[in-house]
Amino acid sequence: MHTCISRGSSYSPSGSIEYTPLQLAAKEGNYEEVEFLLESEENPLDTGPDPALHLALRKGHVEIAFRLLEKGANFEIRDSYGDYPIHIACAKGLLNIVEKLSSLGCNLEKPNSKGLFPLHLAAKKGHIHIVRYLCVVGCNIDARNADNIRADITALKYGHQDIADLLDRLRHSGQRDHYVRQLVPTTKPAFRLILRVLGHCAVGKTAFIKSLHAGLFSSLFKRSSSLQSNKSRPSSPITTQIEMDVTSRHNSLTFEPPIHYHSTKGIHIQNIDISGVGDVTVLEFSGQENYFPVYHNFLSPSPNVLTVILFNLEDSPLVQIQQVCFWINFILARQPADLLPSSYGKVHLVATHVDLTRTPKNQNGEWISTDAQKTLEAVKKLIPHVYNLDPNVLIVDCTAPACHGFKQFKALLASLKHASSTLSVGNWTGLMESIVTLLGNLRKGFEQFPVLFKDDIYEIIRNDVNPLASDDHIEDALLQLHKMGEVFYTGDLVVVCLTWLGKNLIGELLSNEFISNARTTGVYTADDFQACFTECDALGTIQLMESLHLCVQCLVDDDVEYEFPIYNQTETLPGLWDAHDPRYKSDETIYGGIQLHTPPNTLHLLFSVFSHIQVELRKATLNNQSIDNETDLYQWFRGSKLSTDNFETMITLNKPQIPSEFIEVKIRGSESFTSDVFHFFNQVLEIIDQAILIVCPGIIIEKHVLSPHELCIHCPDPYVYDPADIFAATLDAESVLDIALYNPNIDIHESITSLIMFGDADLANEIEWGCTLKINALPAPVKLKVCGLLDPPEPQGKDWCLLAFRLGLESEVIASLDLPHTSRTMRLLNAVDCTIGALIANLHDLGRKDVADVVLRSAPLVHLVKNSSLLD
Ligand SMILES: Nc1nc2c(ncn2[C@@H]2O[C@H](COP(=O)(O)OP(=O)(O)OP(=O)(O)O)[C@@H](O)[C@H]2O)c(=O)[nH]1
After folding, report:
1. Positions of the ANK repeats (predicted)?
2. Ligand 1 centre distance from Cα of residue 230 (Å)
3. Among 517, 540, 561, which residue terminates a domain?
4. What is the pLDDT of residue 42?
């Protein structure tokens, strides 16, 4: 929309100065207008006495100022006040403009017509970040203005002691050059090799790490003692016939440590020096399930991480496969699925306890275990989409550091370290070096509670390390140190000792003992919490728990309390979903529900997410923007119920059992509120999706629909419509709204309107059907799984290339997708412009029912127009 000013008319603000349309638009902050005028070329950029650039800066319209500078606005002219743009930017504290001007070669040390330097103006207005910048780029801090006054005196005069101190320190310490040099990135890459060790309880993780950094001499002692401890264990000889069909078996995963066994608590994080490799940060994750809700914080993908998954060769092949599959799915769920393969670190399987099996050795002393290799092959078949999974299994006796497996592993670490050092990770700076030294002191000084507020650590770094470090310098350094495992940085808090975080905090507060002694409601005041956890300051601990999404502050009868869903052991109350509740008894009550399943044979993934969902639900009810503030939320172990006057919804987590686990969300309300019920249900699903995204961004969720009719008559086990069946029906139907699906439980057909829209066909205007959505609406984890299935060339040639051809891509485009080291299928899915429905149809035609099924089961069934989504 362009007003009359764009047509060339001008305006005189006081009758004396006539502004051009460009000046006026710049002054008023009308970016669109400025853009339009700049395109039209008739508008001179630098008309005086107040050019558009100066006017925009005076009003703080930074984006417009950038655009004008890009278009070549002159920054070496003064306005009617006698200021150059640099003076206005410094006085206004516009750091990015000062940086931009500097990069364009602007003179930062010229006085304005009043004889004030940019430094003086920044000092006068108290913009210490500008003062720091000007000092870093070399401005003369001794320059005197027209009144013969230095900038530090100006700062003092206007009450900015911090600036005066900074300039004073630079003048007297003689360290200014050193500080500046510290901020310049070196050519050394900022990285440390990180080793993550995962596996069930007692598979040998601790022993593995100990042996890894043990000297040969000490290993002799360890070997003899561990042999003693193990000799008494019955050795179960491995069956040679590996059970491939893990899927039809019962769930034999258990996360309990053996009785009378001191299991690792939390996450054991240490920096160790491995001979021939050097410094490695090692994270050993306990195999106990109660710790899983925090592991995502430590499992983000990174090219300089090696993840090892340990399994015990003494276990049956079925158990080995189930355990390894569990951990691989666990990692995949916690990593975003849309990165380049090179962004994920390597994954290696390690078979332990080989010495207690009858595995033969070759001449080199290397164990040759076909059983271990079969486990790997079975896992690869079940989960084909794992990037960088090593094709070999490492076979070790964890108690024998001198064994061949450890030599192989150290060689692998050394080569990874060598390869990673050439990766484009961040660059090392002198600032980071000094912060690492500072961290050593902070760890000693804050031994009891090594957690600092972000603002405090910024201040300490400036006081003790470098007063010229900008917010960006410090932020970058902390993020890099977080990636290297030196600190844990949550955005508001910085934990300076990871060992403490993993062991003393997570290890204690999420331990079975703490949980079983915690309040059953999981709700504490700060004082109550302090009484239970005396090791550290309760409020600080709670704050850290909040930043890990483990607790949420709430008001109970006007008192501040904290809810920890991980501690909530309250039993569900009878009558929470009472069939005889008078409010929901009439024929006019509508019911609906869905189950969020993880794909078949992936178990124990949703347990870690559920407490986060409960935190998010509480936050949503407190924050009336996302959920009506009249909503009442009641939460118990594995369940939450949200109620309003007119409808209620219940969210529960079922016990994991083969074939899968699920979260169930059901809702009921009065028919006269159908639209509200529909939207409320949708909001709850969004909150759940949000929590899932925080913990498991790489998880695939299938949304199964519960029979509304059976929900209404309160059948204990209502029929669940498979998402693939519903999706397939929408593909085949002439008119989607005419679809009805058969419910064998009660021998009736239920309409798609009742399944998806609570029976209100008008709501169809608010949704788009999944089959009509474009492929890019497929969640990234689904795309990744499709890639895992389509990337390996099919023996009969039914692979990604044929699919690309069928989807109408030209042969040159197909050729351009055919690059090594990346997934061709992923390139195809990102390049092609077709609907999910067309993709499924073509996969069927290609004979790839397996891939089509993945899409049918996990593609969004519908998408809500108007910025929100239902069931996607
Ligand atoms: N003989 C033999 N014993 C092993 C081997 N690996 C581990 N052990 C022993 O098995 C027991 C359990 O090993 P840990 O290293 O504590 O197991 P973990 O995986 O760290 O277990 P958590 O602490 O529960 O996480 C210890 O007694 C080890 O000495 C192995 O390869 N061979």
Report:
1. 48-80, 81-113, 114-146
2. 9
3. 517
4. 72
